[in-house]
Predict the structure.
Amino acid sequence: MTTETVVNLAYIVAAVLFIVGLKMLNRQRTARAGNMISGSAMLLAVVVTLLSQGMDYTYIIIGLVVGAVIGAIAALRVAMTSMPEMVALFNGFGGAASLLVAWSEYEKGRWLWLHEVPGPVAVVAIVFAIFIGGVTFSGSLIAYGKLAGKLAGKPLAFFGQQLLDVLIILGAIVCGVMFVMSPTSMYIVFLVLVGLSLVFGIAVALPIGGADMPVVIALLNSCSGLAACAAGFVIDNTVLIVAGSLVGASGLILTSIMCKAMNRSLKNVLLGGLGGTAGTSAAVAGDVKPIDPESAYYILEAASSVIIVPGYGMAVAQAQHAVRQLAQLLEDNGTQVSFGIHPVAGRMPGHMNVLLAEANVPYEQLVEMDEVNRQIDNIDVAIVIGANDVVNPAAREQENCPIYGMPIINADRANSVIVLKRSMASGFAGIDNPLFYRENTRMLFGDAKSSIEALVSQFKE
Amino acid sequence: MSVGMLLFFTFVLAILLGFELISKVPSQLHTPLMSGSNAISGITIVGALVAAGTTDDETIRVVLGIAAMAFATINVVGGYLVTDRMLRMFSTRKDSTQS
């Protein structure tokens, strides 16, 4: 067998392992093993590639050591609350790597192609790898900036934004076609293409607001896979194509799940449709009824079932450990406790689950939205912690409301509702929340963490 | 079938397979799924190896190769480690009483 045959057979094995690993990530029991299987597939692919002939290891080792040290430190030191920005950053680096791979191939091809005609596939693939990779990189950096609080989280819509997007796309298409027609003659066209891809990523990500980030991260995840896939076409490598496509497809699925959870189309999210329509809230009837921790304690103490609905406010207040403590005390008191988690609560898909898992909340207590809504009529108390739009009954009841039709957790249908909230400010969507004025709702104002801690100390007395 | 066509064939099948694999993931696992699949997209490291393994000492290719290698390695090493860290925390009640 030639080395090439061995390498290709190993790539097939790696591709199969990626598929198995990804499938195992679907279940909590098998997820960790699945991740390791996919990791060993990666190792296999790397090792056999190193064995192929005609390689100089010097530069490989430099890049490998630098990357491994940075990656390991970042991964082991990041706080769970900072997970969204970390995932965004890693996404971006994957995109950057694919762009650079395509660029490097082009630098090689520029001289080669003067003597022999390049295959059309490779040239077209370079255009795609550059563009998708570039968009993924700069878009992810913007997402990182917003999530880490280094950029304003507010949607930064500006006049002519959509026109700008269209112009960039048109420019990129023109450059792409020119490049494919004559890849060796105009280096400047190639550089403009790289530039346009980076600008496009910024132009698309900048207008999108913080609460829409779950969609953006899922989409960028998909893009990083597609960029790797395009790079696979560039260097004629099947394992890149297979693994990249898997990620591209799974990211798209996740994106559509997120969009459905907000009852919005992807176009609507990307164009920053929400936020501009705020202020249409109908008059809300009823009074806000504040409550102190002591009275809240009496309600909870008497409850036989409690459901806790966390939102981004819990992450901001870093309240997950205190929440877990409260849940434990309630359970010791004979109360049934579960957590009702909306798919888009937080800043990335599954954000709340990760935080609560970090605080040792058992997996069985993390309940999906549909399941919660089936049980909610029989629940004594719903505790809403730093969530707003995902429990807003207006989405169910008021047809003129901007988030009308978005599936919500029907916290208002529990016998009583305790809402932990810093102030009466409205949520990301800027819509008044009728839940806060309901007859069965009590507002416990203050920082989520201190409020929970106050409740915990009431229980301990 | 030309090589290009075969690659395209592989691509289409892999995309469809991806859709099938992920269609029903419990929402609790969305974050690890995302960071785990993100680590898989670091497969571009194979391309980076080819780029950084260049034997011609043209400066631009060396620079591009090293940079591609570093970015891809961050993606791979960081992605897998962080996913494992998260998944380790997802424990059922039974697991936690055992440990």
